[in-house]
Each structure stands twice: as structure tokens, then as C-alpha cells.
Write a structure and sequence with these properties.
The protein is of the alpha+beta class and 321 residues long. Helices cover 41% and strands 24% of the residues. The strands form three sheets. It has a seven-stranded antiparallel β-sheet. It has a three-stranded antiparallel β-sheet with strand order 2-5-10. The N terminus is likely disordered. This is Transcriptional regulator EutR. One of its GO terms (molecular function) is DNA-binding transcription factor activity.
Length: 321
């Protein structure tokens, strides 16, 4: 086991922020460049606690509604994401459940969709502190979910619960420098052990079919997000990608837990919202924006918009820039 070659700097106090707007919540999340969209509205409340302990950056989030999250990790370090409570989350084609961890290498891309209220932790560790082996196991070479021994999960959870006492209803929301040093040492020890365990043991090699599905979902999302392909139907998108509709459907369901139709419809609503947020009643109308993105039944568009965002499109437009 590598020695802990660091000294603890002063542990910064926990910063807690609560949001009723999911866009503001997404902007507050550290250590990754994110594109976050609202999927399944339950309770329109999101909160995040953040603190730095030495070289580590820790986050504790609570999401009242299901979100579709896509992004990439910052290049300077590794991110580790796992659930504290809530329904399993499909992440890059694998279910993140209790007893597993999402390992996100530097610059790695990830996508996952929450199906309801969820509570989570993340740990961001600079690469220099992890002592990552030269030969990284295949399963740790890209963003993905791995099953972890219950003993390691317990140590990680205990350390993070100690870092965020308010998450466990303890009376204090701070911890002393002595406790913080123990938290940092425990987390670094566990994640280094995780790397050593994966390096020294034989693990399943990623199948070519799994690689193909990951590549296909990336191509599909890039096509929808970066062009006017949102105007196309699901069969037309499948044709553009050179795959059958059945293959496209199976890939979306496996990788995101969504159908292509649901993703496309949700994407169009978010495009409309962005235009409304950056417009005024003097510059455009709800009907004009709706029709621009293929919604020709304005009443149905307004109703669905309200279901997703908790406000009518006219309200978004009135408070636009």
C-alpha cells in the first residue's frame, strides 16, 4: 500500500444550498461539465452540500425529481459517485445500485437518468493523490459501474456520513480537523485499495457488443443535440445512424433507461425552454417558440411543459432576459 504522502490543510466548512430551479442546481455541481435535464417531476426541490477536506472535494446531493444528466469529468482527477438512497440509476449501460460505485476517470464521459427522488455522494480526488497504477484495468479505463466488496462500501459510507453529519440527522454540521484528517485518510486508503484489487485480479473483458452500444448512444445523442435532427422521427434517426429501430430502442433503454421517443420529446421541450428563458414577450410568443420546435398543438405543449417544469411557458417567457 502506498504511503499517504500529503498533509491535511484546514478542512473548509460545509456549504449547503437548496434550489427550486434545476438549472441552478446543475450549475452548482462541481468537478464535471454537465448538461442536466428534468425528466420525472416529483418534488421540485434540489439541495447540495459541498466541502473540501485536504485535497478531496466531497458532495452530498438530494434530488427531489428525476434528472437526465450527461457530462464529462474534469481532467485533473477521478470522480466516484454512489447512491445513499433511492431507486437504481442506469449509468452508461449498467445499473448503479446499493453495493456498487460509478468510477469516472479524468475526462471520461457519462450519462445517467434518475427515476425519482435520489440521494447521492461524490468524491473527487486529484490523480496525483490516488497513485493510479500505470496499467489501469479495462473496467476502470472509462466511466462505468463496478460492484464493490461490502466492507469497502461501508468504509466509504461511514467516512462520508462523518463528513456530512447533517445528512444523518446528527446535531452538528461540522467536523474537527482531526476528524477531517481521518476522513481523508480513510477515503484515500479505500479508493487506492479499490485500484489495487482491480489491478491484481482477473476481471471480465468488456464485450464488443457493449462497446458498440456505448458508441451508438454517443452517436445518437450527438446527432440529436448538435444538429436539427430533433425535427426527425425515431425511424429517420435510426436510418441516419444505419441501425434498425429495434436496435436503437434497445440501446436507449439499456444506456439511459429511456426510449428514443421520450429522449427526443424531452430534448425538444428543453430547447423550447432555453429560447423562452432568453426571450421576452416583446420579442416572441409562446406559440412561435412552440411551433419552431415542432409543437403545433399549443395547449398540449403548455400542459406537458407544466408537467415537466412546474410552470407554464408563458410564465417562463414573462421572466425571460
Amino acid at each position: 500500500m502506498a504511503r499517504l504522502n500529503f498533509q491535511l490543510q484546514h478542512a473548509k466548512a460545509t456549504v449547503t444550498t437548496t434550489f427550486t430551479n434545476f438549472e441552478a442546481y446543475a450549475e452548482a455541481i462541481h468537478d464535471a461539465d454537465l448538461d442536466v435535464r428534468l425528466l420525472h417531476p416529483y418534488e421540485r426541490c434540489w439541495s447540495i452540500q459541498q466541502r473540501e477536506i485536504g485535497s478531496l472535494r466531497l458532495q452530498h446531493g438530494i434530488e427531489g425529481s428525476g434528472l437526465l444528466t450527461q457530462g464529462a469529468v474534469k481532467p485533473e482527477g477521478w470522480a466516484f459517485y454512489f447512491l445513499r438512497s433511492g431507486a437504481p440509476v442506469p449509468l452508461n449501460g449498467k445499473l448503479l445500485v446499493d453495493g456498487s460505485i460509478a468510477v469516472l476517470p479524468p475526462r471520461s464521459e457519462f450519462r445517467f437518468s434518475g427515476r425519482g427522488p435520489v440521494e447521492w455522494y461524490t468524491v473527487y480526488i486529484p490523480s496525483i493523490c490516488l497513485a493510479v497504477p500505470d496499467k489501469i484495468p479495462t473496467e476502470l479505463g472509462s466511466a462505468g459501474v463496478i460492484e464493490v466488496d461490502g466492507r469497502l462500501i461501508h468504509r466509504i459510507r461511514s467516512a462520508l456520513d462523518a463528513a456530512f453529519p447533517a445528512a444523518t440527522s446528527r446535531s452538528s454540521d461540522t467536523c474537527s480537523d482531526c476528524v477531517a484528517e481521518t476522513i481523508q485518510a480513510n477515503l484515500l486508503f479505500v479508493f487506492r485499495e479499490l485500484f489495487e484489487e482491480r489491478t491484481s485480479s482477473t476481471r471480465p473483458i468488456e464485450l464488443k457488443s457493449e462497446v458498440n452500444r456505448k458508441a451508438l448512444i454517443c452517436r445518437a445523442i450527438e446527432l440529436v443535440n448538435d444538429t436539427s435532427a430533433w425535427e426527425s422521427s425515431v425511424p429517420e434517426i435510426a436510418t441516419m445512424l444505419g441501425v434498425s429501430q429495434r436496435t436503437l430502442l434497445a440501446t436507449f433503454q439499456e444506456q439511459l433507461g429511456l426510449t428514443p421517443k421520450t429522449y427526443l420529446l424531452n430534448h425538444r421541450h428543453h430547447l423550447a425552454r432555453r429560447v423562452l428563458m432568453n426571450s421576452t414577450p416583446h420579442s416572441t410568443t409562446v406559440a412561435a417558440v412552440a411551433m419552431k420546435f415542432g409543437f403545433f398543438d399549443i395547449g398540449r405543449f403548455a400542459g406537458r411543459y407544466f408537467q415537466i417544469f412546474g410552470e407554464y411557458p408563458s410564465e417562463t417567457l414573462r421572466r425571460g432576459s
